[in-house]
Amino acid sequence: MAKNQHEPNANEIWLYFQAVISWVKIVFPNYRREMKGIDWGFLYNEYKNEKFDSKKLETEIARLMEDEDVGSKKGIYTYVLTRKEKHLNIRAFSPNQKREAYERQKGVCVVCKEHFELNEMEADHIDPWHSGGKTTAENCQMLCREDNRRKSGK
Ligand SMILES: [Zn+2]
Fold first, then answer.
1. What is the distance in A from the centroid of ligand 1 to the CA of 136?
2. Distance between Cα 151 and ligand 1 center (Å)
3. pLDDT at position 44, please?
4. Are 101 and 68 within one domain?
C-alpha cells in the first residue's frame, strides 16, 4: 500500500462510507447477515435519490428470504432496488420437470407451434415468477430457444 499517496483522500472516503451506511440503514432498517458483502457503494450511487418504502421492502424481503425458488438470498437486496431477477438466481426447472412439460406439449413450442427436440428447447414459467408463479412442473412450458430469448428479452 502506498500509504502517503492515499492519505489526503482518507477523510473524503470516510465521509462517503458514512453516507452509504446511513442510506442503507434508512432503506433497510432490519439488519440481516446476508447484507454483508453487497456492493452497497454501487447501489447507493444508483438509487440514493429514489424514494423507497422501507416497510414495504422489508415485507417483500422477508417473503423472498423464505422462498425456496430464490437461490441467492444475498441478491434479494439488489433485486428489490434494481428489479432485475438475475440477482435472485431463481431456481431452474429440473430435467424431470422439463421432460414432463415437453411430453405434455408433444414437443411443440407453445409460441411458434413448431416441433423441436427436447435439447433444442428451454423451460419457461407459464405464470411469471415475479407474479407468483412457482418453479413446478405444472408451471413449466417449453419454448424453442428463439422464442424463449424473445420472451425474456435477453
Ligand atoms: Zn418457438
1. 21
2. 10
3. 97
4. no
